């Protein structure tokens, strides 16, 4: 979220006030989300940041062995994506998932993460 | 209800003999009867799918067919004897001499591991089977499993009736049978099951939005990647489907969950197969999936922001910024990747699907395989029969009732039909789609017809007058209700609607309009009852013809184990030519263990598997130059060919010749491909040298280079003395229908080692260099 906001600030040269209004409304809307969703969002941000750090590191030292790099990046991306899926399923405002109990959503999340990390461990080499 | 059941229970326990099964059947409730019928049909379809593929086992014996399956059999044998670790790291020095082949890293292990697991399971249950039996029967077993998956898939797309019909159709569809008969131990036998299973799991994931189903579809995709190179179809069709859903506005949260989980986990799992390696992030064929992945992230992020902002104007500016940013980054990344060569372009195998003329000009090896030719209409009719015109009918029904699942099956059907038109081999991939869509057509039609038959079509004459007057009286409301009744096509739906109207006068009106509906229905189509019966009879006739056609096709065309040939003798009796195995066993028993055999690449797998000797080239065709070297040796004069054979350490040369028996898939008919492939790498071999006025001839008028090249000499050595047909001169080639041109052949550097009883395979020994003095 932070990255996008900064870029918006830079690129909206012709409508700075527009961008500021955008900021404020986004911030206020986001403040209204329940805490458990905010925790999931924080987890997603953490995972993406880790992935970005790994890519920068790969840019510095080179990509050998490639399978380890892929394993690392994909584990971060994977767990971020799975967390977003969990957020979608747990969010009370989504009509499609209203009869899915949040415990089941979390259990699915844990199972998928387990498979993801087992495969990543095999792929790390 | 409860009292009645208790009474029944008391009756059955008190009276000693239990009612006969038929009576017990009719005592069940409708739902239980239906379940029983469904389960019984599925069980019969399962057994049918297995049994119809057993023709060649019953006629000949339980053996592996064709060429490619022999390699799979050899690797499975190795796997069961030496364990998975040795198999995964196997370097084979017996093929592609002197290069060798890294088998562990260049095959799709799914089929072998599956067969080995079944073998282990059966052994564990103390059935002492030989691995060859397991290999022979793997494909029919998985075909039976495919019918079950087709049932569930049909149920997911349409309803359980369509599922049953789909299972029945795919059990005997010739397009599928052609590559999954007993003995055809090839990747496709398992891969089609994996393909349909993955698609079913993915559609289920999109329909339910559950992470568990998406995980299951990722595992299905992993199995498909381990089984066949055609997994590229899945990894391109599913992103295309997601794109279509996005564009048509049918996207939902479930789609996001399903695709993302399947893509990330599926990609990671797929990269565990060494042969696939890093292609999912580096190859152009897999970039569509990645592109759609990023597009989905951007799309749903924008959707979320729009939902949070609740203000149109602010969102527009945000949208503008983000879109330009995302598109520019994406295009830049793609451009840099493709230009720098990091993202490899589409490989020839798959590029020739998009541009069918590509292979003919650039890659003769791909063009020479007979399965890669474009499909003729007769092949379509042969392999699909009535499904060919039921396919558009099914498409119509799918469009009438669009949902996420029907959009998927329509896309699968259309794309696979396009590819089936480009390459004969891909009719196999289209077969499940065609069966499913046709099943929808059949099921919907039969359902409509039977519901027409079941409505009480006879309106009593007394009511008809009253019905027409009541129509005029309450015209608008009754018409609206009648229209609604007509669109709900079952009596139960009508009853439900009646129950929902809670006033008595509404009930009276409803009863009047129902009679009016029946009366009006009867008045508008007086013969609809008879028409429906006639159409139903027609439909069942079509289906029975389909069944007869499929059985005939399987029996006549697809059950021959190409390694054993059969023909009709002069008196109508069957003659079996077992020359191939005769030659391979001669090699096995009469040549030194380290002998190297040179032959055209078609026979490589069989020679290594049955003859157990090292070959120069085999069916893997991964090294075009090596094959071109062999092609050059076959097309040169004997001295030059001898030099090439010396450089390759060749001890024996194997040639297939069909002139005595009239067998037309022999090396002389394949010779022009040898010339083309050899000439593709060594410009000294020119195709026009072997042709006369563009015509390929082997008789007196043939080109001199043709009459003296190594292949000609080896094939026709001593053939000039043979009388093949009554009334024809000696040396009459029955496969080409001409008398050969060069009857007096002398070999200088080779000597004949073995010729099989019908002259189909001829083996020559390469003489060591002469002593200098």
UniProtKB/TrEMBL annotation, chain A:
<keyword id="KW-1133">Transmembrane helix</keyword>
<dbReference type="GO" id="GO:0008250">
    <property type="term" value="C:oligosaccharyltransferase complex"/>
</dbReference>
<dbReference type="Pfam" id="PF02109">
    <property type="entry name" value="DAD"/>
</dbReference>
<comment type="similarity">
    <text>Belongs to the DAD/OST2 family.</text>
</comment>
<keyword id="KW-0053">Apoptosis</keyword>
<feature type="transmembrane region" description="Helical">
    <location>
        <begin position="42"/>
        <end position="60"/>
    </location>
</feature>
<feature type="transmembrane region" description="Helical">
    <location>
        <begin position="106"/>
        <end position="124"/>
    </location>
</feature>
<feature type="transmembrane region" description="Helical">
    <location>
        <begin position="66"/>
        <end position="86"/>
    </location>
</feature>
<comment type="function">
    <text>Subunit of the oligosaccharyl transferase (OST) complex that catalyzes the initial transfer of a defined glycan (Glc(3)Man(9)GlcNAc(2) in eukaryotes) from the lipid carrier dolichol-pyrophosphate to an asparagine residue within an Asn-X-Ser/Thr consensus motif in nascent polypeptide chains, the first step in protein N-glycosylation. N-glycosylation occurs cotranslationally and the complex associates with the Sec61 complex at the channel-forming translocon complex that mediates protein translocation across the endoplasmic reticulum (ER). All subunits are required for a maximal enzyme activity.</text>
</comment>
<comment type="pathway">
    <text>Protein modification; protein glycosylation.</text>
</comment>
<keyword id="KW-0256">Endoplasmic reticulum</keyword>
<dbReference type="GO" id="GO:0006487">
    <property type="term" value="P:protein N-linked glycosylation"/>
</dbReference>
<protein>
    <recommendedName>
        <fullName>Dolichyl-diphosphooligosaccharide--protein glycosyltransferase subunit DAD1</fullName>
    </recommendedName>
</protein>
<keyword id="KW-0472">Membrane</keyword>
<keyword id="KW-0812">Transmembrane</keyword>
<dbReference type="InterPro" id="IPR003038">
    <property type="entry name" value="DAD/Ost2"/>
</dbReference>
<comment type="subunit">
    <text>Component of the oligosaccharyltransferase (OST) complex.</text>
</comment>
UniProtKB/TrEMBL annotation, chain B:
<feature type="transmembrane region" description="Helical">
    <location>
        <begin position="287"/>
        <end position="305"/>
    </location>
</feature>
<keyword id="KW-0460">Magnesium</keyword>
<dbReference type="InterPro" id="IPR048307">
    <property type="entry name" value="STT3_N"/>
</dbReference>
<dbReference type="GO" id="GO:0004579">
    <property type="term" value="F:dolichyl-diphosphooligosaccharide-protein glycotransferase activity"/>
</dbReference>
<comment type="pathway">
    <text>Protein modification; protein glycosylation.</text>
</comment>
<dbReference type="GO" id="GO:0005789">
    <property type="term" value="C:endoplasmic reticulum membrane"/>
</dbReference>
<feature type="transmembrane region" description="Helical">
    <location>
        <begin position="160"/>
        <end position="178"/>
    </location>
</feature>
<feature type="transmembrane region" description="Helical">
    <location>
        <begin position="317"/>
        <end position="343"/>
    </location>
</feature>
<feature type="transmembrane region" description="Helical">
    <location>
        <begin position="221"/>
        <end position="244"/>
    </location>
</feature>
<keyword id="KW-1133">Transmembrane helix</keyword>
<keyword id="KW-0479">Metal-binding</keyword>
<keyword id="KW-0464">Manganese</keyword>
<keyword id="KW-0256">Endoplasmic reticulum</keyword>
<dbReference type="GO" id="GO:0046872">
    <property type="term" value="F:metal ion binding"/>
</dbReference>
<feature type="transmembrane region" description="Helical">
    <location>
        <begin position="256"/>
        <end position="275"/>
    </location>
</feature>
<feature type="transmembrane region" description="Helical">
    <location>
        <begin position="102"/>
        <end position="122"/>
    </location>
</feature>
<feature type="transmembrane region" description="Helical">
    <location>
        <begin position="380"/>
        <end position="398"/>
    </location>
</feature>
<feature type="domain" description="STT3/PglB/AglB core">
    <location>
        <begin position="596"/>
        <end position="653"/>
    </location>
</feature>
<keyword id="KW-0328">Glycosyltransferase</keyword>
<dbReference type="Pfam" id="PF21436">
    <property type="entry name" value="STT3-PglB_core"/>
</dbReference>
<comment type="similarity">
    <text>Belongs to the STT3 family.</text>
</comment>
<protein>
    <recommendedName>
        <fullName>dolichyl-diphosphooligosaccharide--protein glycotransferase</fullName>
        <ecNumber>2.4.99.18</ecNumber>
    </recommendedName>
</protein>
């Amino acid at each position: 979220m932070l990255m996008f906001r900064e870029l918006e600030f830079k690129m909206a040269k012709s409508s700075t006030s527009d961008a500021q209004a955008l900021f404020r409304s986004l911030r206020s809307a986001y403040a209204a989300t329940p805490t458990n969703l905010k925790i999931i969002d924080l987890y997603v941000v953490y995972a993406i940041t880790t992935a970005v750090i790994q890519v920068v590191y790969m840019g510095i030292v080179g990509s050998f062995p490639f399978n380890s790099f892929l394993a690392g990046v994909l584990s971060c991306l994977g767990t971020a994506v799975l967390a977003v899926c969990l957020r979608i399923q747990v969010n009370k405002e989504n009509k499609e998932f209203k009869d899915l109990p949040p415990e089941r959503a979390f259990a699915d999340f844990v199972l998928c993460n387990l498979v993801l990390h087992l495969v990543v461990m095999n792929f790390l080499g | 209800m409860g009292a009645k059941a208790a009474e029944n229970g008391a009756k059955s326990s008190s009276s000693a003999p239990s009612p006969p099964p038929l009576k017990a059947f009719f005592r069940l409730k409708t739902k239980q009867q239906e379940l029983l019928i469904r389960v019984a049909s599925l069980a019969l379809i399962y057994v049918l799918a297995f049994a119809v593929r057993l023709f060649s086992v019953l006629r000949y014996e339980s053996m592996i067919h064709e060429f490619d399956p022999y390699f799979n059999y050899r690797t499975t044998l190795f796997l069961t004897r030496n364990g998975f670790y040795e198999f995964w790291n196997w370097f084979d020095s017996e093929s592609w001499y002197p290069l060798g082949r890294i088998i562990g890293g260049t095959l799709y292990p799914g089929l072998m591991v599956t067969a080995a697991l079944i073998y282990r399971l059966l052994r564990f249950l103390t059935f002492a089977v030989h691995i060859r039996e397991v290999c022979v029967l793997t494909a029919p077993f998985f075909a039976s499993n495919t019918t079950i998956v087709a049932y569930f898939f049909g149920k997911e797309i349409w309803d359980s009736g369509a599922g049953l019909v789909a299972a029945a159709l795919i059990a005997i569809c010739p397009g599928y049978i052609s590559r999954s008969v007993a003995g055809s131990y090839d990747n496709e036998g398992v891969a089609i099951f994996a393909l349909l299973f993955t698609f079913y799991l993915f559609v289920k994931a999109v329909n339910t939005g559950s992470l568990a189903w998406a995980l299951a579809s990722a595992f299905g995709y992993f199995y498909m990647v381990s089984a066949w190179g055609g997994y590229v179809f899945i990894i391109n069709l599913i992103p295309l489907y997601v794109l279509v859903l996005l564009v048509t506005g049918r996207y939902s949260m479930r789609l996001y969950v399903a695709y993302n989980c399947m893509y990330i986990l599926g990609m990671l799992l797929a990269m565990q197969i060494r042969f696939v390696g890093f292609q999912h992030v580096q190859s152009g064929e897999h970039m569509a999936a990645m592109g759609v992945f990023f597009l989905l992230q951007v799309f749903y992020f924008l959707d979320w922001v729009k939902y949070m902002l609740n203000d149109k104007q602010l969102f527009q500016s945000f949208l503008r910024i983000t879109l330009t940013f995302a598109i520019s980054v994406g295009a830049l990344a793609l451009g840099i990747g493709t230009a720098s060569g990091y993202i490899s372009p589409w490989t020839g195998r798959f590029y020739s699907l998009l541009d069918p003329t590509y292979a003919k000009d650039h890659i003769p090896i791909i063009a020479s395989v007979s399965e890669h030719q474009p499909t003729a209409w007769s092949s379509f009719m042969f392999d699909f029969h009535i499904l060919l015109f039921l396919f558009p009918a099914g498409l119509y029904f799918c469009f009438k009732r669009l949902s996420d699942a029907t959009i998927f099956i329509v896309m699968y059907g259309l794309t696979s039909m396009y590819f089936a038109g480009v390459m004969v081999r891909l009719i196999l991939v289209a077969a499940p789609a065609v069966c499913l869509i046709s099943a929808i057509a059949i099921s919907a039609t039969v359902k409509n017809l039977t519901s027409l038959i079941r409505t009480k079509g006879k309106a009593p004459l007394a009511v008809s007058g009253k019905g027409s007057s009541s129509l005029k009286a309450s015209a608008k409301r009754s018409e609206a209700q009648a229209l609604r009744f007509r669109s709900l096509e079952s009596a139960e739906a009508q009853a439900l609607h009646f129950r929902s109207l809670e006033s008595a006068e509404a009930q009276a009106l409803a009863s009047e309009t129902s009679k009016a509906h029946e009366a009006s229905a009867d008045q508008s189509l007086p013969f609809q009852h008879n028409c429906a019966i006639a159409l139903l009879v027609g439909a069942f006739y079509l289906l029975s013809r389909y069944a007869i056609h499929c059985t005939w096709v399987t029996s006549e065309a697809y059950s021959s184990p190409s390694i054993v040939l059969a023909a009709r003798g002069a008196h109508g009796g069957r003659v079996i030519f077992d020359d191939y195995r005769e030659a391979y066993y001669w090699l096995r028993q009469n040549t030194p263990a380290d002998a190297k055999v040179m032959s055209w690449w078609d026979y490589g797998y069989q020679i290594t598997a049955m003859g157990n000797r090292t070959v120069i080239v085999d069916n893997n065709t991964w090294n075009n130059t090596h094959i071109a070297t062999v092609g050059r040796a076959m097309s040169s004069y004997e001295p030059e060919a001898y030099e090439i054979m010396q450089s390759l350490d060749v001890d024996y040369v194997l040639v297939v010749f069909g002139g005595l028996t009239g067998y037309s898939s022999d090396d002389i008919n394949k010779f022009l491909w040898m010339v083309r492939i050899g000439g593709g790498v060594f410009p000294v071999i020119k195709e026009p040298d072997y042709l006369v006025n563009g015509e390929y001839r082997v008789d007196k008028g043939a080109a001199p280079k043709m009459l003296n090249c190594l292949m000609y000499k080896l094939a026709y050595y001593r053939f000039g003395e043979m009388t093949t047909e009554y009334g024809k001169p000696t040396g009459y080639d029955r496969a080409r229908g001409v008398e050969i041109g060069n009857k007096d052949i002398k070999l200088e550097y080779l000597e004949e080692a073995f010729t099989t009883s019908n002259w189909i395979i001829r083996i020559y020994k390469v003489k060591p260099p002469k002593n200098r003095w």
